[in-house]
Design goal:
10 helices; mainly alpha; about 0% strand; about 240 residues
Amino acid sequence: MTLPELGPSLGRLADPPVAPSDPGALAIVLEDIRLDLVTRIFDVAGAARAFLAAGDRESAITSLGRVAWLELWEKAVGAAAHRVADVVNDRLREAATESRLPPGRLASVLLDAEDVRAIGARIGSGGATFVSALDSLEQTVPAASASGTRGNLGQEEWQTALATTARRLESAWFTLVDAMKIEQQRWKDEIERVRTWRRPQWPLWMVTLLVLLVLSYWGLLLGGYLPVPEPLKTLAELWWSRL
């Protein structure tokens, strides 16, 4: 049994790191997460080859099974979602400082763990075809793991399904990258709303109006235009005595 090289099937996913031409509205870069994903895939493939060299074909096949691929994908999606949340929260704090948004209002707009999960669900939704390929890969495992003629016949089908899984992962990743741009724009709009926030002016005008009314009333009393109420006579007489 031979283990196919996964690099060609991973396609652009296995490319060297490059500066993206359009990183999105918040300039969030995922190259390190992509490279970590590929590195972990190659590590799993290396472990599978070690099992194969030791004559343990079943463990080799299992190590490249559905669970391993799905775990790596979910880890990458989670890392991307956390990066969005970290960048957005930093920008929200900066915007709040500029607009002097009260801390209580800021706390209500900062992203929390539930928001991170929602972001992960949105940007990872393009992985449906990848998960479907994993289901197909899993169906080939029993035959490929068997011994004798059945195992020999199942190996080719398993290798084909493995290569398909790698290609679907490439597609899923670049769908995630596109979804990230939409996600960044969504949160950029929220950041701009915080940045342009202004404290309501009506309380200040209300207080100013009340002060003016009180001063006007007091002026009319002291000027003799209005009768002085009994509770204010002492203050009025004190004022008049100083004139």
